[in-house]
Amino acid sequence: RLSCIRNNIWLASCGVLSSGLAVLSSFGLMLFCGVPFVVTVANAPFLILGVGVDDMFIMIASWEQSSRKKEKSSVKALLAETYAEAALSVTITTLTDVLAFFIGTWTAFPSVRSFCLYTGTAFVFCYVYTMTFFGAVLVLNHKREQGNRHWLTCMRVEVGEDQAENSCLYNACCIGSCSRQPSQPEGEHPMSIFFKKYYGPFITNKWIKMLVVLLYGAYLGGSVYGCTQVREGIDLRNLANDDSYVIPYYDDDEKYFSTYGPRVMVVITESVDYWNETVRLGIESCAQNLE
């Protein structure tokens, strides 16, 4: 926003900070519990940031809608209305993410198991911080706006006769309007107007609804066919550190020995007398038969 009062830069920054706190809390708890930190865990903060920022936008949008509907309501009523609108959506998305990653801890790969533990726990902390820390930030930002305070310095923005002689640039930066009038609460967001007046009536047209159903059916059919073509497999070099000896080993193995097919190993699961010549000849005979 161009308004120096309605600008929500600090609000957005605190939303990102909330995701960062979730990452720090999760990593600290997992390290304290002795869960090994592997290189794949380094990707977790990007996932948490995406979900945390999404929850932030949902909370801000619900707060602004509540503020427009109940302009004279108390802060408690506005916050209650915001949670009533946003908490369900945030809870469901967090729950599905947490379940998905905690199910991933059943894998046999230790590195994937660690990644799922770190990320799933971070999602839980992200939810907690969104419902507590960010809700408090919303209230503080609302009080700043109600007090007509600047978004950066939090100093009260006053408009008087002495401002009439100031330049347009000064008034735009310090008042929020070149007209030398105090900035007023903005109306409905243009994106909300677009979905309400244009996209909503368009998508609810009966012919468009039929087209959407047909497109979804084609998408569903393609997805089912794609699932039947999926083959399990994983490149083990992706589960090792960049400087691990495993990576050049797999590179050389693929370069020099890939034409011979998979290795076949013979494992003797019982104790035998290797010093007995008859036993040794029997083992060699078994290996020759397999060859």
From TrEMBL:
Lipid metabolism in keyword set: no
Record Gene3D superfamilies: Multidrug efflux transporter AcrB transmembrane domain (1.20.1640.10)
Chief location: membrane
Mode of membrane association: Multi-pass membrane protein
Statement: the UniProt record of this protein carries the keyword Glycoprotein: yes
Protein name stated in the entry: PTHD3 protein
Record localization: Membrane
Gene: Ptchd3
Gene Ontology CC terms, in alphabetical order: membrane
Domain of life, source organism: Eukaryota
Keywords: Glycoprotein, Membrane, Transmembrane, Transmembrane helix
Annotated ranges, domain SSD: 1-140
Transmembrane spans: 9-38, 44-63, 83-109, 115-140
A Pfam family per the record: Patched
Family: Belongs to the patched family.
